[in-house]
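pls design
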């Protein structure tokens, strides 16, 4: 196996639910509940699931934008979860994030030059002249032009703004980029362009990606491996081709059956997922998917399925219990 860049073990994030006059804790939302995975250098790991499944919270935990309730995150042999603020600042140079809504992460009062220069200033990289040169070069890398440096975010289209968001993430020459729904807000025609750009720069800058999306179709072509989350848990993870050709978990099968296929001659049966997504504040006992699963058994209602390793294809479902 190639070198590991990131290892996540037993990651949990529980948000307290408070209420009443005294704001007493009345329960908790298990947004991320015992999630483990690793990411190899140079690969793209896709993380997919419906909104509220914990995928974006996982991304924020990896950056330590929010603190984990439990678990370990190890990046290049350094444990992020216990790191001091000073060490964390240094490591943020190596881990950057691309957001769904670039407009929200680009200061509207700052020119593109100021926006792109900022991460370099924060990390004390280069002289003023070197920084300006790098801004111009980076704009070209992401398919914009150096003359765009003097413009402001509102003067760009959604697709161009996402290119600026990507350029901003690239400025510190990171090793890992966590992209949280980076193309979900874009038109389908623009999505492909931005995905292609991300693929191209991955090679050029030797990047590792964690690509978070709600749509299995979007992550298919960019991901080497894909993990599927449901109600805070990682329920299946496999090599991309294996997952799409041979999904094991009933939830993944249903999600995949809903992804449109480009060939009109190929027919497939859409598996409907019954019922609403349960509240993460009150997840079902046993297998969290049991209230919606067409293959539910008695054991599913009481016992949480352990993760099985089927030749590198991980699945948490009682159907595969040995
Ligand atoms: Fe369905 Fe049971 Fe598997 Fe959960 S553990 S997905 S309820 S078969």
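designed seq:
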């Amino acid at each position: 196996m190639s070198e590991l860049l990131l290892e996540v073990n037993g990651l949990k994030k529980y948000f307290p639910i408070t209420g009443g006059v005294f704001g007493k804790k009345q329960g908790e939302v298990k947004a991320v509940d015992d999630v483990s995975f690793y990411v190899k250098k140079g690969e793209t790991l896709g993380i997919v699931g419906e909104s509220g499944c914990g995928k974006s919270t996982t991304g924020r935990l990896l950056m330590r934008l929010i603190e984990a309730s439990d678990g370990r995150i190890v990046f290049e042999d350094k444990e992020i979860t216990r790191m001091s603020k000073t060490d964390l600042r240094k490591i943020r140079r190596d881990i950057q994030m691309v957001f769904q809504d670039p407009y929200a992460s680009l200061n509207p009062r700052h020119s593109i030059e100021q926006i792109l220069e900022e991460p370099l200033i924060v990390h004390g990289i280069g002289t003023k002249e070197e920084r300006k040169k790098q801004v111009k070069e980076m704009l070209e890398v992401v398919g914009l032009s150096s003359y765009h440096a003097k413009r402001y975010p509102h003067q760009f289209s959604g697709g161009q703004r996402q290119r600026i968001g990507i350029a901003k993430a690239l400025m510190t020459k990171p090793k890992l980029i966590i992209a949280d729904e980076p193309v979900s807000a874009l038109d389908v025609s623009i999505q492909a362009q931005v995905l292609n750009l991300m693929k191209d720069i991955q090679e050029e800058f030797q990047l590792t990606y964690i690509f978070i999306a709600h749509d299995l179709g979007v992550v298919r072509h960019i991901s080497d491996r894909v993990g599927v989350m449901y109600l805070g848990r990682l329920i299946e993870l496999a090599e991309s081709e294996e997952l799409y050709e041979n999904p094991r978990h009933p939830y993944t099968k249903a999600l995949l059956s809903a992804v449109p296929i480009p060939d009109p001659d190929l027919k497939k049966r859409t598996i409907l997922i019954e019922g609403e997504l349960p509240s993460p504040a009150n997840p079902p006992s046993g297998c969290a998917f049991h209230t919606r699963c067409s293959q539910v058994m008695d054991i599913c209602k009481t016992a949480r399925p352990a993760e099985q390793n089927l030749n590198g294809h991980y699945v948490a479902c009682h159907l595969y219990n040995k």
